[in-house]
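Quick one: structure for this chain?
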Amino acid sequence: MSAPASSSYSQSVGIIALIASMASLCIGTSFAKSLFSEVGAQGTTTYRLVFSALILWLIWRPWRFKLNRKDAGIIALYGLSLGAINFLFYMALRTIPLGIAIAIEFLGPLTLALLSSRQKIDFLWIALVAAGLVMLIPHQEAAASLDPVGVAYAIAAAVCWALYIIFGQRTRNIHPGQASSLGITVAALAVLPFGVDYAGSSLLNPSLLMLGLLVGILSSAIPYSLEMISLHALPRKTMSILLSLEPAMGALAGVIILHEHLNIQQWLAIIFIVSASIGCAATSRSPLRDELENKTA
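Got it. Here's what it folds into:
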């Protein structure tokens, strides 16, 4: 297979993996909300990451691969950013609406997409995404009524999401299974004290443990393994904009699982976001070409 064809195939695999990752994540988040009243955002995050780490260790057996000090440091940064995203986003959801929390969180990847843009057409996709996200915000509620602490948590999650993309792409030379399993382990260890402090022995409730396992599988174990494939195959700007499919998938998951109803404006927002994602995928440049230009710049 020629180099251009191989690069195109790799990028296609990365796009498919990322879409599957977001679908699993949205379904898992729908189940996660049912745990908030029992173990709080802290305990739910703990379930999600601890179970994900255990599952990925069984699947990938990361001890089989060599790990030097430099790679361990990269994985630690990747894991800490991953843990922070989960924790901060769930903390935000306690006091501000889901749509607003997602829109604020997306400022992270959107900023990366803008900063790493090299083609004029990219600004069209970014504009469509931004318009779609704004339309997803529930305007029925006055902005003044938003809890400032919840907004602050969402903004912090946006920063950590950008860092997650940056640190994740630095794992290109590390086996994806090793990076994802060790990264989530770091995330779980970082969040565990907060979950234990808030929920205590409630975390050991058998029925809650089963729900936590389901959340861990759908929200982290599957999505983050697939995302590692995408991080290795896609350029930063492509992945940043494609991730914008998540609010649309979240809305669809709400319709199917939670029986939520969307208005015309929300469906139009979904169309904007999907259009931007398709346009980005169609006009994106190969990771190899981007890397070569970085080296010669």
